[in-house]
Amino acid sequence: MPATSTMTGAAAAKMRAAVLTAPHSLAIEHVAVPSLEPDQVLVRVSAVGVCGSDVHYYEHGRIGPFVVDGPLILGHELSGRIEAVGHDVDPARIGERVAIEPQRPCRRCGQCRAGRYNLCPRMEFFATPPVDGAFAELIAIQSDFAFAIPDAVSDEAAALMEPLSVGIWTCRRADVGPGSRVLVAGAGPIGVILAQTARAFGASEVIVTDIDAGRRELAGRFGATRVVDPLTDSVEGLDVDAFIDATGAPAAVRSGILAVRPAGRVILVGLGADDVELPVSFLRNREIWLSGVFRYTGTWPLAIELVASGKVDLDGLVTARFGLAEAEGALAVGGEPGQLKAVVYPGR
Ligand code: NAD
Ligand code: ZN
After folding, report:
1. Residues 156 and 213 in one domain
2. What is the mean pLDDT of residues 293-316?
3. Domain assignment present for 139
4. Nearest-CA residue for atom 9 of ligand 1
5. N or C: which end of the chain has fewer CB within 10 A?
6. Residue 304 lies in a domain
7. How far apart are CA 158 and CA 177, in angstroms?
């Protein structure tokens, strides 16, 4: 994993990175290039998407139990080009353009061995304290978590394979397939990507709600077959096969559940209140399945395929671009009207 720590050898090489030093304070610093373990590749970072969690760490210094208590490099949605390889990695990989799966499971615990490595209790995840992220010129990652991308896929789209992976994992858990009718609450980057992914999985109807008219308009352009303003129109009784919450808002969770058919599914993706009141008798009497989603396992190959084949458009979601020195601007721009996804280019 990337670390601002050591480089073996006499003079440790340095690189530029945008380092979160305190809430609301990002400094461009020269830090040590991450050292390479035998199974890792060193990647020159091309593009990094800004996620709500980066913004949250920047503004509040913590997300639930994860507290920033030292300098931290943000950014976990990234692409780049392989610049060097560890002892055990084929040097032929040098020069490859890659999309990065920004996590390192232990590969040995019960969850890892059961194929659910996203639930590994020893997971190291980029830009989650104390693990550094990708607002930096270089990162290190185990070779099999750096996925080659075709020339036709842009650096931005390759970086956004990460939120697309959330969409894929969610649609799998929601059992979305040909002919599915799906309700998505929230048309932020995740909701908009979910709408496209559900369509790519064969959903015939994808209804997206958002309280923001601009966001509803975006959802309509990217995958939604219908958009709904939850403040004026109720979704209750739609009898959809699956409801996916991408807001974390208690009102959206509650009304979305009431839109699900018997034996349908409810998938909670959004982060919000820790405790929410649920319509329990409705869930029980309809035998509705309810699950959370925590990131993803094994999604990059399909993500790359969906983008390369044109079934999912990630390039169209990018609304602002910044060099490394302007990374702070990238963290601030997300909430502005008309904005969806900001991207930082550490090489600029
Ligand atoms: P975002 O904040 O950009 O989008 C959320 C959208 O929900 C906004 O457009 C907002 O207007 C809308 N909204 C708020 N209240 C609403 C309501 N009552 N009804 C309908 N819409 C409402 O966030 P995002 O980047 O799109 O991510 C969505 C959520 O998913 C966030 O909470 C994020 O933290 C979470 N997330 C979870 C995972 C995971 O692994 N579980 C991964 C990535 C993101
Ligand atoms: Zn594990």
Report:
1. no
2. 98
3. yes
4. 188
5. C
6. no
7. 25
Instruction: Tell me what the pLDDT averaged over the chain comes to.
Output: 95
Residue carrying structure tokens 């990647």: 43
> Given pLDDT bands bounded at 50, 70 and 90, which one contains residue 238?
very high
Nearest residue (by CA) to ligand 1, atom 4, is 188
For the question of whether the overall pTM of this predicted structure is more than 0.90, the answer is yes
Residue type, 183: L
Please tell me if the CB atom of residue 49 comes closer than 6 angstroms to any atom of ligand 1.
Answer: no
Q: Any idea which ligand is nearest the CA of 106?
A: 2
Are 118 and 295 within 8 A, CB to CB? yes
- Cα 169 to Cα 174, 188, 246, 335, distances in angstroms: 9, 17, 13, 26
Phi–psi pair at 93, nearest 5 degrees: -75, -20
* pLDDT one-digit tens code per residue, 190-210: 999 999 999 999 999 999 999
Distance CA 285, CA 271 (A): 27
pLDDT of 6 reads 39
Q: Which of 160, 217, 232, 269 to mutate to test the pocket of ligand 1 (most atoms within 8 A of CB)?
A: 269
Whole-angstrom distance, CA of residue 229 vs CA of residue 235: 9
pLDDT over 70 (residue 1) = no
Domain containing residue 141: 5-160+314-345
Q: What is the pLDDT of residues 53-100, one digit of tens each?
A: 999 999 999 998 899 999 999 999 999 999 999 999 999 999 999 999
- The ligand whose atoms approach the alpha carbon of 214 most closely is 1
**Rounded distance from Cα 245 to ligand 1 centre (Å):** 8
**Nearest-CA residue for atom 34 of ligand 1:** 271
211 Cβ below 6 A of ligand 1:
yes
Q: How many domains does the chain have?
A: 2
- Residue 212 and residue 185 in contact, taking contact as beta carbons nearer than 8 Å: no
Q: Which of 54, 229, 247 to mutate to test the pocket of ligand 1 (most atoms within 8 A of CB)?
A: 247
- Closest C-alpha to ligand 1, atom 28: 246
- The answer, yes or no, to whether any atom of ligand 1 lies below 6 A from the CB of 109, is no
With respect to residue 302, please indicate whether it lies within any of the assigned structural domains: no
